[in-house]
Design a protein that fits this description.
It catalyses: ATP + protein L-histidine = ADP + protein N-phospho-L-histidine. InterPro entries: HATPase_C_sf, HATPase_dom, His_kinase_dom, Sig_transdc_His_kin-like_C. One of its GO terms (molecular function) is protein histidine kinase activity. By secondary structure, this protein is an alpha+beta fold. The longest helix is centred in the first third of the chain and has 17 residues. It is 27% helix and 29% strand. The chain has a single domain, classed as Histidine kinase-like ATPase, C-terminal domain (Heat Shock Protein 90), CATH 3.30.565.
Length: 139
């Protein structure tokens, strides 16, 4: 879905995951929105190209999904504002994409942690619970 945009920006995808990952209990279309938003943002912060590394691994009773870019990084004072309604660093952004993404992950009983170093890039680390029959599916 984002392949054409990645090609235009000279961005390559690197994926790291184990074939034997357990299922997560989720609403797939909602999580798809999150991943599209985060990957699209990662492409946009690398106008000269680079790699987006997507890593998926099991951590005890949770899954970890990391999306890492090689962009310019995010200043520490801005990281805490990410996910606030209408907050954007883009000229043409609405400031709603990350807000919606944070909400969707929270509704799935997950977390998003942002790690960034200016000049080196940013990692969005998402954790989600592994399939649990006692958890209701988010709508």
């Amino acid at each position: 879905m984002l392949t054409a945009q990645a090609v235009l920006h000279n961005v390559q995808f690197v994926t790291n995951y184990n074939e034997q990952l357990p299922p997560i209990f989720c609403e797939p279309n909602q999580l798809k929105k999150v991943f599209i938003n985060l990957i699209k943002n990662a492409i946009e912060v690398m106008p000269e190209g680079g790699n987006i590394t997507i890593t998926i691994k099991k951590l005890a009773d949770r899954m970890s999904i990391s999306i890492e870019d090689e962009g310019c990084g995010i200043p520490k004072e801005i990281i805490n504002k990410l996910g606030e309604p209408f907050y954007t660093t883009k000229d043409s952004g609405t400031g709603l994409g990350l807000m919606v993404s944070f909400r969707i992950i929270a509704e799935h009983k997950g977390t998003i942690i942002v790690e960034s170093e200016e000049g080196k890039g940013t990692i969005f680390r998402i954790t989600l619970p592994i399939n649990d029959n006692n958890v209701a599916i988010p709508k």
